[in-house]
Amino acid sequence: MQEYFAKHPKVWRAFDIFLPFLATLAALGVGAVMLMAFDANPVEAYGALLEGAFGSTNALADTLVKATPLLLVALGICIAFRGGVINIGGEGQLILGALGATLIGLSFPDLPGYLVITLALITGFIAGGAWGAIPGFLKAYFNVNEILSTIMMNAIAVQGMNYLLSEPMIDPVQLEAASRIPQTARLSAAFDLPRLVPTRLHLGTALAIIAAFLVFIFLWRTVVGYRIRAVGLNPNASRYAGINVPRHIVLSLLLSGAFCGLAGAIQIYGLHHRMFTDGSATGFTGSAGFNGIVVALFGQLHPLGAIPASFLFGALIVGANKLQRVMQVPSSFIIALNGLVVVFVVSADYWRRRLARRQEAEVVSEMTASSEAEVPT
Amino acid sequence: MDSSQLILTLASIVLVSTPLIIAVCGEILTERAGIVNLSLDGTMLMAAMTGFIVAFETDNVWLGFLAGMGIGAFFAFIVAFGSIRLRQSQYAIGFVLTLLGDDLSAFLGQNYTRIPGPIIKHLPIPVLKDIPIIGPIFFNQDPVVYFAFILVAVTWFWLFRTQPGLRLRSAGDRPEAGFARGVGINFQRYLYTILGGALVGIAGASYSLNIKIGWSEGITRGLGWIALAIVIFGGWSPIRGMFGALLFGATKALATYLQRTFPEVSVVAFNAIPWVLMILVLLLVSSDFTERLVTIAPKSLQRPLQRLLRVSPPQALGSTFVEE
Question: In angstroms, rounded to a whole number, what is the distance separating the alpha carbons of residues A41 and A46?
Answer without folding.
Answer: 9
